[in-house]
Amino acid sequence: MQIKHFIIVFLYLFSNLSAQGIPKSNKDSLYNYTNFLGQDCLKGRATGSEGLKLAAKYIVQKFNNWHISKAGANNTYLQRIPFHSSQPLEKSTLQLSFANQKIHLLINKQFLLIKSGIQTYIPVPVKVVFAGYGIDAPEYDYDDYRNINVSGKIVVLLEGEPYSSTDSTFFSGKIKTLYSIPESKIRTAFAKGAIGTILIPSNRSDSTITWKKQQMAYSFEHVSLPQSSSSHLGVFLNRKSAALLFSSSERTYAQVLAWEHDDSLTSFELDVEIAFTGSFKQREFKSSNIIAILPGSDPELKNEFVIIGSHYDHLGIGKTVKNDSIYNGVLDNAVGNAVLLEIARMFSQSKLSPRRSILFILFTGEEKGLLGSEYYTKHPLVPLDKTIAMVNIDGLSALGKFKSLIGIGARYSDLGIVLQETASEHGYRLERLQEKYLKHLFARSDQLSFARSGVPSIMITEGFEYAKFKRDTVISRTINWFNKIYHSPFDDLTQPIDYVAIKNYTDFIFAFCNRLANTSGKIEWNKEAPFRINFLKPEEGHGD
């Protein structure tokens, strides 16, 4: 690693750059981009919405104004992507059949659909099995499906996962692993032959994710790429409805929760059958990734590419909270789009001539499961084997003058070396997240799609060291933002945003990408990169 470090630094120092020619970002421009993309008239920029189309027109106009070349289809900036959308209607019901009665649960009140569409119909009642957490994790010698057959049945699963207060290596102790993600549980159940999955609250569920928050999160239409639909029902139940499932069985819901507390969960069949009758509003539509290219200046290196990406979609119109139903997505991710746009302007209007080509991509469908970036990696517009790195910009805290940075994915490849050198030059300290946090964060945004496809990828965020705030204060404010603002109508333009901090971040990301575009050395994955082992599996990614 030290030899590789020396080579990258040496080649950079002897490249055709002059530090004196590095441009600076414009705070007012960052403000203007953010305020356009975050305004109410864009209606939250949902995938496929008119608001997102307006955002796309704005972004395209900026690229045109700066004379950055088109890299989309048919001499445009757009990569058109087909999508399927489905939203359940109120007459959709979940039927519980007992020996002497039938109970119909109401959607959005007693149950929520995790994923929906015509493929989720279960018209004839089927048997139901309780299968613990629904986890099969060989590395922990843990399998909830070990002694039970779920083929053709519906599985009932507790949210969350096992943890150990004494052994931090067992499911990372009290820290959540990717096994706790609902989509992971559903895919495991599907692989075991189950035709449906019902998730119920556990005593180890995240206390910050209330039923009210789940109602907000699942009030939006489900969007998928056409080829990704599957015939599997996915449901959340609230606690009262969860107890009904066990009402005719020998073991009650309360007993199951007691077993969970004692780490003695066992799987068993429930004395209930379930059917689902759904009514859906469905549509087929297209939405676009926006792609521009700055051709490289080196005769050979111009055929290699650095991708700078951010997602420009958000959630759109959702459940009303305090008279507001527009989920604007300002810090997630209008600010990220503003940073990308300003970096594009800086490159296009400076006298610098990066040796490698730079691809600017604004992704659609990230909030629906990284769909835009997934589509791009399956239909790349430049060769993926010639794409040396992907730098993702997704979500900033913008609290004030930061003194440290976190490179999510930095230690997985030579990007960590480039980040360290750039941070040192700019006076920032790098903070390292523990691996158990890092894996979870790396899998939650568009860099994951590229990592799966073999492209070294990174997302750089502010750390927790600030000039005017104590570390504990920053951590507390960050947690508060995720609990109360994230994916809510309050991530809007009324929240405090420090545009000087955004400017400083923009200047740093520009310098980092400029270095990537000018080094002659290759960027390679480290041998211990987790995607080589077990963790960057297709089923584990989802949007944020």
Can you describe this structure in just a few lines?
This protein is of the alpha/beta class. Helices cover 29% and strands 24% of the residues.
Describe the structure.
The longest helix has 20 residues, at 330-349. Strand 16 (316-321) and strand 17 (324-327) form a beta hairpin. The two termini are 33 Å apart. The chain is globular. It has 544 residues and is an alpha/beta fold. The strands form 4 sheets. Strands 1, 2, 11, 14, 15, 18, 19, 20, 21 and 22 form a 10-stranded mixed sheet that branches. Strands 4-3-13-6-9-10-12-5 form an 8-stranded mixed sheet. The protein contains 14 helices and 22 strands. It has helices spanning 2-13, 27-37, 50-65, 182-191, 211-217, 239-245, 253-261, 330-349, 371-378, 415-426, 435-442, 447-452, 471-484, 499-518, and strands at 69-70, 78-88, 93-97, 102-106, 111-115, 122-130, 136-137, 142-143, 154-158, 196-200, 222-224, 233-237, 268-277, 280-294, 305-311, 316-321, 324-327, 357-363, 387-392, 404-408, 429-431, 457-462.
Shape: globular
Give the structural class.
alpha/beta
Helix segment count?
Answer: 14
Q: Rg from C-alpha positions?
A: 24 Å
Poorly predicted regions are 1-19, 533-542
- The proportion of residues forming helix, as a percent range, comes to 25-40%
Taking all residues together, what is the mean pLDDT? 89
Describe the main β-sheet briefly. Answer: 10 strands, mixed
What is the terminal-to-terminal distance?
A: 33 Å
What percentage of amino acids are in beta strands?
15-25%
Number of strands: 22
